[in-house]
Amino acid sequence: MSKLLIIEDDPYVSRFYEKLFSFAKYEVHLASSAEEGIKKARELNPRLILLDIMMPRIDGISVLRTLKSDPLTKDILVV
Questions:
Q1: Which residues contact 62 (CB under 8 A, 6 or more apart)?
Q2: Residue 13: which of 46, 55, 45 has the closest Cα?
């Protein structure tokens, strides 16, 4: 089963994607902030990250830059 990390600050959107991808047999993990998402990406090493662009404090583009500059997370696919 492939791991998927959803970094999304809207709980309704997160739950929607969680149900959708769980049904498709993904192991789904949620992060409700950029900081939590970066931490979980490093810990979990998911196959794919669904990343919200508009988030408070740190936007999705900054998260993407952080993930791609980190040797532990640079090869993770991000949508």
A1: 34
A2: 55
pLDDT tens for the chain, 79 residues long, are: 799 999 999 999 999 999 999 999 999 999 999 999 999 999 999 999 999 999 999 999 999 999 999 999 999 999 9
Long-range contacts of 56-63 (CB under 8 A, 24+ apart): 56/9, 57/33, 58/33, 58/34, 59/34, 60/7, 60/34, 62/34, 63/7, 63/34, 63/37, 63/38
